[in-house]
Write a structure and sequence with these properties.
- By secondary structure, this protein is an alpha+beta fold.
- The chain folds into four domains: about 200 residues, Glutaredoxin (3-Layer(aba) Sandwich); about 325 residues, Alpha/alpha barrel (Glycosyltransferase); about 70 residues, no CATH class; about 70 residues, no CATH class.
- It is built from 27 helices and 24 strands.
- The chain has a five-stranded mixed sheet with strand order 1-3-2-4-5, sandwiched between helices. A four-stranded mixed sheet has the order 22-21-23-24, sandwiched between helices. A three-stranded antiparallel sheet has the order 8-9-14.
- Strand 10 and strand 11 form a beta hairpin.
- The protein is globular and about 80 Å long.
- The two termini are about 45 Å apart.
- The N terminus is likely disordered.
């Protein structure tokens, strides 16, 4: 079974918060039911003649609708639901999952569709279902509680709380028998020992609050100059030097870390780090975690070699990996990286794009009740489909009998580069490309005959903002104007459907409820708008970025920490301060980065100072856990290494801008204007019929240049 860890997804380390222990009854429960983690999936209810219907039938979330005909009296998360629990003095079950979650699906079949279990739940509890992608704030609170109780977590996340929402018990997947036993024991404990239950829940709630308390570090005149080197030195022993990534039995792609290391090797020329990052990128691109036939990345690898994935496909993973491999191509010029970008984009266009221009959230891991069934292959099936090509195909994917699973099924992955394979088999580069295209066409046609994975058709603002950046990075690397057009198209979708009067919504679905946006929606969108401005020279994007950044400050600023709250209205048991860079970057890190960039663009020192203060506050955490703060580490390099503003001014600005953006230039901000502009970087620098490039640092500019290659040579880039 596929298992997941979530320590990389949430904003704390275990050493910081410790674990709540020594409460007898609940400790026994935790020991009894500490099970494997679950990373998980949705079922499809094809029968319209349902015996039961609950309140979820009025929701639009695919995950909630999945449970709309359970015999459990599910209700969506709301203050009203908790009020009813308090009025009736009932414990609350908060069950959290998402549509592409395999073990969520399993638990639904085993427990939530069981009449006896449902009757017990309905009689003794108020039952709340939560889509973690729709309400990441609720998920974050209760996942923190689970981590405190057990030191690990996953989905489905099942929490029993007091009527006031404070957690009494938390676990992941339970079998039917285990779930019945858990509920019985927790109910009896609450009825027989209400004072002790309240005491324990209060301790857990206080632990959640503590996990979100940040020790403020006031402005440091100078951040440590060697901090990036120190971070890499501390992190280096954790690298997997054989298979890439960090050591571990499961592996996530961690885009923020990859981005940091690529920028670090460019600034420091660290050859060991350069070897490591290339090995990591190569292994992922040739591994089973990448869909070798259809393109796109799966959620994570269940093994240390990147061979065997958990098969759900998430928009946020693929959006970020487009960015990563585009930037990697700028550094290494590897054809493999270009292929990964192109095929990942093709996958998104083919399978995850709404006709109006936004992109859906996820593809299910399961089809026909089996995880990965849509993606795995049988040797006999491959031989029949590929015919005389099969022996060479077999060799290309280095299919090993020991890798073949039950029923002859296997996951495709590679062991060597195209150049080595071509050389070893007497093929030209063109010969191999023709073969690969034919194989993929035949197998995609074969795959199309299978039951397709269900799609979660929510259009999440923050994830689409990440995709805007992905398309723009691909545009910079390959100068393909189609990618720029797609980035603009995504923004227009968000601007039309998810933004009104500077108010973003988190998740859009036609006919659905408009839930207020979270910090990640604002910070990621501002970041995308800054990059859109850099790509297009259209100042309206910059104006929108500045306005949304100010709005985010008003909505989310937390004066006590100097950072930003995750949500707008704190109706949960704790304020949420998300600082940890996980699979997605911390929205606080992105807010700090946005302030830094806007400060340089607008010549507003207070924004740069705010960014520096935030970096100073997070610095102790980055040194404690260097692999958990990749986006922050990038920002630290912005503050501690020379940072350059490159301004291109004149009628030929567009062409010169493209030449500069084609290069990998960390610690630089590249902007251009084809005409006179009031922006400080361009002020009084326009010369009619001429185009000049200015390299500036700390509001001081070098003499103008006309050739991009001369400018690049001025920068301290390895």
């Amino acid at each position: 079974m596929c298992k997941s860890k979530v320590s990389n997804l949430y904003p704390f380390s275990y050493t910081k918060i410790g674990m709540i222990k020594d409460f007898p009854v609940l400790t026994i429960l935790c020991l009894l039911f500490l099970l494997g983690l679950a990373a998980c999936s949705q079922s499809k209810h094809e029968n319209d003649n349902h015996a039961q219907t609950n309140a979820l039938v009025n929701e639009t979330s695919p995950y909630l609708l999945q449970h709309a005909h359970n015999p459990v009296d599910w209700v969506p998360w709301s203050e009203k639901a908790l009020s009813i629990a308090e009025e009736q003095d009932k414990l609350v079950i908060v069950s959290i999952g998402y549509s592409s979650c395999h073990w969520c699906h399993v638990m639904e079949k085993e427990s939530f569709e069981n009449e006896e279990i449902a009757a017990f739940m309905n009689e003794n509890f108020i039952n709340i279902k939560v889509d973690r992608e729709e309400r990441p704030d609720v998920d974050m609170v209760y996942m923190t509680a689970l981590q405190l109780m057990k030191g690990s977590g996953g989905w489905p996340l099942n929490v029993v709380t007091l009527p006031n929402g404070k957690p009494l018990y938390a676990g992941t997947y339970h079998s039917r028998e285990e779930w019945q036993e858990v509920l019985t024991q927790v109910r009896d404990f609450y009825l027989e020992n209400p004072a002790k239950a309240s005491e324990y829940a209060e301790r857990v709630a206080n632990g959640v609050k503590e996990a979100n308390q940040i020790q403020v570090v006031h402005d440091q005149e100078e951040l440590p100059k060697e901090i990036a080197k120190d971070i890499v030195k501390q992190w280096r022993p954790l690298w997997d030097t054989v298979h890439g990534g960090d050591q571990g039995q499961q592996k996530f792609m961690m885009p923020s870390n990859l981005d940091f290391l690529m920028n670090y090797i460019a600034l420091e020329g660290d050859e060991e780090a350069k070897v490591h990052i290339k090995k990591s990128l190569d292994k992922m691109a040739m591994g089973g975690i990448y869909d070798q036939i259809g393109g796109g990345f799966f959620r994570y690898s269940t093994d240390e070699e990147w061979k065997y994935p958990h098969f759900e496909k998430m928009l946020y993973d693929n959006a970020q990996m487009i960015s990563i491999y585009s930037k990697a191509f700028q550094i290494f010029k590897s054809p493999l990286y270009k292929e990964v970008v192109i095929t990942t984009i093709d996958f998104l266009e083919r399978e995850m794009k709404d006709e109006a221009g936004g992109y859906f959230a996820a593809l299910n891991a399961d089809t026909d009740g089996e995880e990965g069934k849509y993606y795995i292959w049988n040797q006999e099936e491959l031989a029949q489909t590929l015919g005389e090509d099969y022996p060479l195909f077999f060799s290309y994917y280095a299919i090993n009998p020991k890798d073949v699973g039950e029923n002859g099924n296997l996951v495709l992955y590679r062991h060597e580069s195209d150049s080595l394979f071509s050389e070893g088999n007497g093929l030209t580069k063109n010969d191999l490309n023709v073969l690969k295209n034919r194989w993929k066409t035949l197998l995609l046609e074969k795959r199309a005959q299978r039951t397709k994975p269900e799609i979660d058709d929510k259009i999440i603002t923050s994830w689409n903002a990440l995709l805007i950046n992905g398309y723009l990075d691909a545009y910079f690397a390959f100068e393909d104007h189609r990618y720029l057009a797609r980035a603009i198209e995504v923004f227009h979708f968000i601007n039309k459907n998810s933004l009104e009067n500077l108010q973003l919504i988190h998740s859009y679905k036609k006919g659905g409820r408009k839930l207020e946006g979270f910090l990640e929606d604002y910070s990621f969108m501002v970041n995308a708008l800054i990059k859109l401005y850099s790509a297009t020279m259209d100042a309206s994007y910059l104006e929108k970025a500045e306005a949304l950044h100010k709005e985010a400050n008003q909505l989310f600023e937390d004066e006590a920490s100097g950072l930003y709250r995750y949500n707008q209205n704190n109706i949960l048991i704790s304020t949420l301060i998300n600082t940890h860079d996980g699979v997605m970057p911390s929205p606080n890190a992105v807010m700090a980065e946005n302030g830094f960039l806007l400060g340089h663009l607008l010549y507003e020192p207070k924004l740069i100072k705010k960014s520096k203060n935030m970096s100073s506050t997070i610095l102790p955490l980055t040194t404690e856990n260097p692999s958990g703060y990749g986006r922050w580490n990038n920002l630290l390099m912005n503050h501690t290494y020379p940072f350059y503003e490159i301004a291109v001014v004149g009628e030929n600005a567009k062409n010169l801008l493209s030449s500069l953006q084609k290069a990998h230039l960390p610690n630089t901000l590249v902007v251009a204007s084809p005409s006179e502009s009031s922006l400080p970087l361009f002020l009084n620098r326009y010369v009619d019929k001429e185009t000049y490039i200015y390299v500036c640092q700390n509001n001081t500019c070098n003499l103008p240049e006309t050739a991009p290659e001369i400018v690049i040579n001025q920068l301290k880039i390895h």
